[in-house]
Amino acid sequence: MIAKLEPVDDLKTVWKHEAHDFTKWLYDNCDVLGDQIGLTINPIEAEKAIGSFNVDILAEDNNGKLIVIENQLEKTNHDHLGKVLTYLSNIDAKIAIWISPEPRPEHIRAIEFLNGMSSGDTAFYLVKVQAFRIGESEPAPLFSIVAGPYEEQTATRKMKDELNEFEKTRYKFFEQLLEKINEKTSIYSNISPVGYQ
To answer: How large is the greatest C-alpha to C-alpha distance in the chain, in angstroms?
Structure first.
């Protein structure tokens, strides 16, 4: 006989308290999260102090890139988005994972925006957490990415970086050219290499 997979509607029946239960469980089971979202996550410290704040979980991938994980058991909110950005910037982490059972569309767009604007070595993930049972079984978590970096963004960032490098080279060329020309004549003295075609 095949049983029916049933969602657990209230995650607080699985993890009663966000910090004491969910964060602790997640710290001990970072491999479950990592397997489901395609990352290697090695936990370093739970409730790691960052100034006067605490990041839920500080971890790293196999390359030593720092990962900040901010988890919550309610809808995403601005407070947690601010925490993600604060922790990421203050410890120079390269990967941010924000977990919630109910990601709001505005926060999905915010994470997509951050991935589009960030350099190629920084990645933001918004991950939806759910739990399921089969019959009377213990609940099992399911993590799924609702917003994260994707190949097209990475390729676009790489192309922008290459264009920026080209622009720098072109600027340097015209700066030196104008410098040499201005030694001979003053006809180009009020031309700047910025935007010069």
So the answer is: 91
Contact 132, 139 (CB under 8 A): yes
pTM score > 0.85 for this model? Answer: no
CA distances for 3 relative to 6, 7, 130, 131, 137, angstroms: 9, 13, 19, 16, 11
Closest to 81 measured CA to CA, from 51, 62, 106, 61? 106
Return the CA Rg of the chain. Answer: 24
Give CA–CA dist 102/76, Å, rounded: 6
Whether 38 and 66 have beta carbons less than 8 Å apart is answered as no
**In the predicted model, what is the mean pLDDT of residues 141-165?**
69
As to burial, measured by CB atoms within 10 angstroms (0-12 exposed, 13-18 middle, 19+ buried), residue 105 is exposed
Helices 105-117 and 151-184 pack at an angle, to 10 degrees, of 40
* Mean per-residue pLDDT over the chain, rounded: 86
d(CA 118, CA 120): 6
d(CA 127, CA 146) in angstroms, rounded, equals 6
% of the chain exceeding 70 in pLDDT: 89
Q: Which two tokens stand for residue 2?
A: 């095949």
Please provide residue 28's backbone torsions phi and psi, each rounded to the nearest 5 degrees.
-75, -15
CA atoms of 189 and 181, how far apart (whole Å): 9
Q: How far apart (Å, rounded) are the C-alpha atoms in residues 85 and 24?
A: 22
